[in-house]
Every structure is written in C-alpha cells, then in structure tokens.
Design brief:
315 residues, alpha+beta, globular
C-alpha cells in the first residue's frame, strides 16, 4: 500500500534503501509486555523541545556477495569516530571487543551496539560490517570454525568479565609479551573459550525489518528516536493499520513495537554517550521526559548507569 502524504513535521513516505534480503526471524529477547520505561514515557506529558539528534540508519547487507577476509589471529585496531569497516566475512569464529569506545556491528539480521564491557560473537561465515562511535579500540580474537563454545550459529552479544577482558587484551597485544610461547598462547585461548562458555548472552539485537511498511515506520524512528507518536499514528503516516503493524512487528522482529522502540532508543543512547553527550541531553534525545526513567532503562539493559558508561575505559 502506498504511503499517504500529509504535511507532517518530519519526512514522510518510504525511505530510499538499498535492497536487502529478508532476515531470519529472531527469537523474542524480552517479555511480551512493554518495557516499563516505555510505558512511563507514553503516560507522560509531551516532551520539551531538545536539540535534534538523528539515529544513524542501519547498514543493509549488499545484494552482491561480500568478500572473504582472512583472519589469521588476534587483531588490535584503532578506529576514528564514525570510521567504517565494510561488509566481509571470515571462515573463523570472531570475538569482537571494543576496549574503548563503542562499536555498531551489522549483519543481515539486524544491528548490535557494543560498549566496552560487552563483546559480540560472530560465527564463521556470517557477513558483517562495523562502525565506530567515538575514538574506539577494537580488539578481536579468532577461533577455528570447529570450536563452538556458545553452540549457536547466530551472532550474540556477551557480557565481558574482568578475566575475559584481560585475556582479550593480552592475546591481542602480542607486542607487550614478546617472549610468549605458542603453548602459553594456547593456554590463554583455552581460558578465553572457558570464559565464553560461562558468559551471559544479552538480548541487545535491534532486528532489521523486511516488510516495506515496517521499514517505513523504522525509518521515521531512526530519523527521530524521540518521536512520541503511537503505532496507530505512525501507521497513519505510512499508510498501514495499527493491528497489521503490531502483528508484523511480532512476526518479523520477534518482539512488540514498544520493545523494539525501547531497543532503538537504548542503541541510540550508547552512540550519543560515546560522542560525549550529557546523560540529561541523551535522555531527552531518546524520548525520555524524566532522566531517571532513562537511567533505569539503561541500567536494566546494560548493567551499568549512563554516567558510569561515559567514564573513559582503559585502552
């Protein structure tokens, strides 16, 4: 159905997007009820005017085959703000950890935002791309395709404890240990695998929509994550009914619309915080009238407060 053009305060109609394949269905990662912070926001008075902050639109997988990139071992790379690593894949499993800064990791299924106390596991053969937010140190480890510490063929965000973090830093910084033997390296790699088997996986995927109507709604919210319109109002802007959109969100995204919008806002908040935006301004830009509601939602999702997250991590 073609979008109905109205004289809105935001761009309407379907955005121009690169073609992409229909992503696999993602299992529900949160309860089917709306996030408490989202419900609080909907019940509050209209937000005050805040500086414009646009969420970066998600990368889309290219229509052509992506190149293979050899991954002989650990890597340690510094990325500048908004620097991109284009689409590629490895024949090995890869663990990606930003020891400083924030990374967005994209696959055909959606996007993850990875702060310093998290890592993302990318299985062998999965095409992916990266973008840094803030000055970022990206450290990675490689594991043979036969290794399966997580028993999953999908990318997964993991909590990084102190021991796993130190092992990642040590293995990805060979210059700091010139006398390390191959046996010592294998021991550290085994410690990393053992830690990965015990690491908590976190529901931080922002699924990518395939249906044109969902993509139009998603584009409006990427343009302004603080957009307070209900699903019915957004549906009217793109020419789709509320019930249809609600059903599509659950079927394609594996979560309800309020859950997806909360996930989008939290992803956007990490990017703003990495750019040095204050906690209060970030809360406003992400649609929270009360900073306390934002802090609670952030703590629930990431295990820390936005203020602590803004503190520089060790390299």
């Amino acid at each position: 159905m073609s979008p109905t053009r109205q004289p809105p305060r935001r761009p309407q109609g379907r955005p121009t997007r690169q073609p992409e394949g229909r992503p696999p269905r993602t299992p529900a990662s949160q309860a089917e009820t709306a996030d408490p912070a989202e419900a609080t926001h909907q019940a509050e008075a209209p937000r005050q005017t805040a500086p414009a902050h646009h969420a970066a639109p998600p990368e889309t997988a290219p229509a052509t085959p992506v190149p293979h990139e050899p991954l002989p071992g650990p890597t340690n790379r510094t990325l500048t703000h908004r620097e991109r690593i284009h689409w590629h894949f490895h024949r090995e499993h890869q663990l990606i950890h930003p020891s400083h800064g924030v990374l967005r990791v994209f696959t055909a299924a959606g996007a993850w935002v990875v702060p310093p106390h998290r890592a993302v596991w990318v299985p062998a053969g999965v095409a992916h791309a990266h973008q840094a937010h803030g000055h970022t140190r990206m450290r990675t480890l490689a594991f043979p395709a036969k290794a399966a510490p997580l028993r999953t063929d999908r990318p997964t965000v993991l909590a990084v404890g102190p021991l796993l973090r130190e092992v990642i830093v040590s293995l990805s910084d060979e210059a700091a240990a010139p006398g390390r033997t191959a046996r010592q390296r294998r021991t550290l790699e085994q410690v990393a695998l053992d830690e990965l088997r015990q690491a908590d996986d976190l529901p931080l995927l922002l699924p990518a929509p395939a249906d044109d109507r969902l993509r139009s709604v998603a584009a409006l919210l990427h343009e302004d994550p603080a957009d307070p319109r209900t699903l019915a109002e957004l549906g009217a802007a793109v020419g789709a009914g509320e019930r249809t959109l609600s059903r599509l969100f659950r079927r394609e995204m594996g979560m309800s619309f309020p859950q997806w919008r909360t996930q989008l806002r939290l992803h956007h908040s990490l990017i703003l915080l990495a750019a040095g935006t204050s906690v209060t301004a970030t809360a406003t830009a992400c649609g929270y009238t009360h900073t306390s509601a934002f802090i609670e939602a952030f703590r629930h999702a990431f295990g820390t407060t936005p203020g602590r997250h803004r503190q520089p991590a060790l390299p």
